[in-house]
Amino acid sequence: MNQIVYLVPAFGLVGLLYTAWKFNWVSKQDAGNEKMQELAGYIADGAIAFLKAEWKILTYFAIPTAILLAWLGSQEGTPDNPIHSSPLIAVAFLIGAVFSATAGYIGMIVATKANVRTAEAARTSLAKALNVSFTGGSVMGMGVAGLAILGLGGLFIAFYQIFAQGQALTSVEMKTAIEVLAGFSLGAESIALFARVGGGIYTKAADVGADLVGKVEAGIPEDDVRNPATIADNVGDNVGDVAGMGADLFGSYVATILATMVLGQEISVTDNYGGFSPVLLPMLIAGVGLLASLVSTFFVRISSETSSVQNALNVGNYTSIAITFVTSYFLVKNILPEYLTLRGTTFTSMDVFYAIIVGLVVGTLMSIITEYYTAMGKRPVDSIVQKSGTGHATNIIGGLAVGMESTVLPILVLAAGIIGSYHFAGIYGVSIAAAGMMATTAMQLAIDAFGPIADNAGGIAEMAQLPSEVRDRTDNLDAVGNTTAATGKGFAIASAALTSLALFAAFVGIAGISHIDIYKADVLAGLFVGGMIPFIFSALCISAVGKAAMEMVNEVRRQFREIPGIMEYKAKPEYEKCVAISTEASIRQMILPGAIALTVPVIVGFTMGPEVLGGLLAGVTVSGVLMGIFQSNAGGAWDNAKKSFEKGVLIDGQTYKKGSEPHKAAVTGDTVGDPFKDTSGPSMNILIKLMSIVSLVIAPYIHVGDNDHASATKMEKAPIVKAIVAKK
């Protein structure tokens, strides 16, 4: 293997050095007056308390899982179906889990520093406020991408040295190295699911409580210092939209690269890199994408109070895509040989580049479509605003209709992307298209994390009773942040669809099955069960938010009732009790949804066989992608429909603003949409990828030989079962 592989962890180190540099810059900005710093301290303390409680529970999950993986890795299988793994898969799993948690922690720490500094910067100008908030987001983006590339590249080099030094890419030793490397992705995605679900339950429980009692009943802003749930609400923005999203895209990033490496390991080529170019390419694309994102952060600037914040962010995003496009061409032409063959499909190096272009185009179109369906001033959001004029029910109907309609174009784009990338380079093309799309993850995360930082800044400005022009500037940033958060979720679900297809193809190869025949009754049953899982998963997440929100509503009502002087600013609310409710509820309620994703593939795989498990994965992927797009876009549209009333809207010739009856209907819609867009919706992409990765990890243990295809659903064909029976 060529020395070029050492560039991969080097790219990661560059990203982390940028992270440290910008983190230091954010920390040096003015944190405002004593009141602002006190409020920011409450938010930071609440966020840290949640993460500590979450990590404690996840430790109880991670250690037994690592022990189980170590035991499975020690199994040798049978002579007919040997298992290519090692107990070191447990080490990879733990490193992936720690890195994923660290990625979320980095984002949360910088967000809790940048929020108050953005509020203070908004005293000066919109341009300065954008600079501070976006720089805070870029720290998270570069930190996540840097950790992912450093971890994946470093472990790949280590496992190559341990298992396959001097061996060919297609050797069984390299198969072992990459199978063990899959543990890193499993650890990352496992933590991401719990972080996303737990953080989502936390933030929405607080948000619903703050909205329903503060806004609707008491008639005060949700970020009013008199609202007992306001600190918990602002904490939730950090643990859900920042820490949760950081862990989420860390897992997506790793899974996408890994899926391409697993498929690339099957390709035998003669090149200048010892035949390793098909597995080096996705890692190097991720590396140059990180550098492209780093350069592009310097283009996100505005010059005046009337400049478009959305346009500034778009310039940074499109610049990173353009740089990745150009550098990918030179990478492909200089690394890959002219011809490659995978599973009977022959393609050229230029075909691989065309597949990367397809991935970049799909990612761009998904962002544009999502922005259209969730941005203020566009037809979908305006239609919800108009329906608010006739009450709460019609607002809900309008939001549901927008969410359902918003699935059409993204699915057509995804379908075209799958067909196009497969046409150019087969299943490797689909996987490398996903890698191309995910290459600019650092920039996507920077844009995404900017939103919750701006939201928190607005909350601090409201609670600290800063001048109205400060809140106007933070509201400007926050409104754009709502749209960027929605586009980030659209980007994540699109990448999940392509990545899951690549992981599915890798699973089929490792499990030893040639096809998934849905004409078989048990496979068709698996398909239906898989289609159901996103629904029960969503139900559990939304129900958890509802239960926690009820506790929050009752607590806020109690404080308004029992603590005299809150409304007159004479008494201080008991913020810590609301923070405790969200923390305890989210930790308690996140376990069952996570257990479904982790255990169902194992149960189905070992009892029904790999072909039925394949049917299950197909059902989960299709249903999960649709549910993810529908829920995220409906929630985003409801949110911006509510925000439209802040500047006044025209309904049937009459202007309505905050506090009006149509505005109250919009608040109800936003409250319904909150768990859609921030809990269950964005969790869909982790669900489908995690189930695919679990299936990939257990594939060697349920592998069926060529003679077993006719009875591939029988448990006794699994090599690990054969080995255990033989020992007895």
TrEMBL record:
UniProtKB keywords: Cell membrane, Hydrolase, Ion transport, Magnesium, Membrane, Potassium, Sodium, Sodium transport, Translocase, Transmembrane, Transmembrane helix, Transport
Signal peptide stretch: none
One Pfam family this sequence matches: H_PPase
Regulation: Requires K(+) for maximal activity.
Membrane-topology descriptor: Multi-pass membrane protein
Enzyme superclass (EC): translocase
HAMAP family: PPase_energized_pump
Quaternary structure and interacting proteins, as annotated: Homodimer.
Protein name: Putative K(+)-stimulated pyrophosphate-energized sodium pump
